[in-house]
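User: Could you check the structure of this?
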Amino acid sequence: MSCMLPTPRLGYLASKNCPPVFLAPALSPYRQNPAFFSTSSPVAQRTTRSKHAPHPNRGVSALRRTGLRHRVEMDKYPLPVPVLDPEKRSKVAVDEKHGLWGFFRPDKKALNTPEETAAFGRPWVVEELRHKSWEDLHSLWWICCKERNLLATQAYERDRLKAGYGEAEILDRNRAVRQTQKAIKHALTERYYAFEDARRVAVVDPEVDLEAEPGTQAYTPIYSDEAALEPDYSVNQRASSSSAA
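Assistant: Sure, the predicted structure tokens are below.
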């Protein structure tokens, strides 16, 4: 029995002793020699790490799941064991006046009912805020800020729980708080314009000293109060002389 073996130039060559079929790829003349991954010679490998040598942790990647090349031991620092029993858990002391409690109601509930959220009054108007002092307006502004933070916390908790209720009440209450803040800005803007008008008048007023030091008198009237109260006798004398003539 003979078989034909392929050759690069002679085509197929007859052979009496045919090799096994699984050895055919090894006898193929078109087989290429496999190349190694690294073409560097083992002799040229650096024995010591120089300045330009690669980092020893080169190739460590969390994306490719290549971990550390040395063993990491955790025997000295054991992992904490979770406490499943609520009665055995240690209680953390929390300050009752902590600033983060401002994001919750006094009863410390993360989410109120729609009836509780809808129970609020009307917003402040500009006519009422015109009579308030700067300290009162400042306090009211920060009260509005705390209320908006509280409403934002409840809205986030409602979305997390997917409650499906209370959104309209929170929006209405937040709208009222924002109207109060707009009224505060309106009142402060009016005061700013009034102050600027008074400052422009004081610049040209000779009785006002805008560069006066703190604690000194900034307003010095040209005529004293006593001179203003005294009667002007010169007018009466001129009137009597004209009548006598």
